[in-house]
């Protein structure tokens, strides 16, 4: 007899390639993953996974089952979204995924306003460095600072995020040839603000790298170097000073994204409008 849970565990193993990876994604132990996959193989009476020393790979039959199983999973998620959208009062839980610094420094301090407006609505805020999949229901709504690509989602631009150079008080008084810099790690050399910083540094040393903006800001406050930071995080920080340089600032568009099946749910719409209003009213004025 077919058990959807067996298929769900098989798909996680097919995606990650390891028992431990599948177990982490499903929040179960690896023995459960192995047992579920074995049960599916017994049901189909065929081998779906080839067990190699460091990785599990799909057999030819496993590849066919994975394709069909992913289609089943997509349809199951669509069914769940449709039912939720039809019977959703302005209550319950909405999951919102945003970049980590935006979650911690911009949105979380403003959430009391959402609580006052909708006391029966509960928000789960995910500060993700990776992009949460809306089609896989990792989140209901996402704030993105790169143009969304998902065909099944609806996106709208709700504002602009400015980045500028900040340093500890007095740091910029030293000769500019002696300035040193704080930046993302090399994996983010392609993003707008990092390219701007590298061009501005013009060969001067980047002495500290971190993929977390809070960590970069802490290093800048400590006098380690000049950091390229979002203005909403830094412009009112008494321990950081914006450099007075006549250059155009780096900017990134802010997008609000929702799966098309959920956009009319009252609770989801309430969070969408709240976030859009906060960005409109709360982002620092241009050049601040």
From TrEMBL:
Keywords attached to this entry: DNA-binding, Transcription, Transcription regulation
GO biological process, one term: DNA-templated transcription
Family matches, as Pfam families: HTH_1, LysR_substrate
PROSITE patterns according to UniProt: HTH_LYSR (PS50931)
Residue ranges crossing the lipid bilayer per the database entry: none
MF term (GO), any: DNA-binding transcription factor activity
Domain of life of the organism encoding this protein: Bacteria
Family of the protein in this entry: Belongs to the LysR transcriptional regulatory family.
Protein name: LysR family transcriptional regulator
Organism per entry: Lichenicola cladoniae
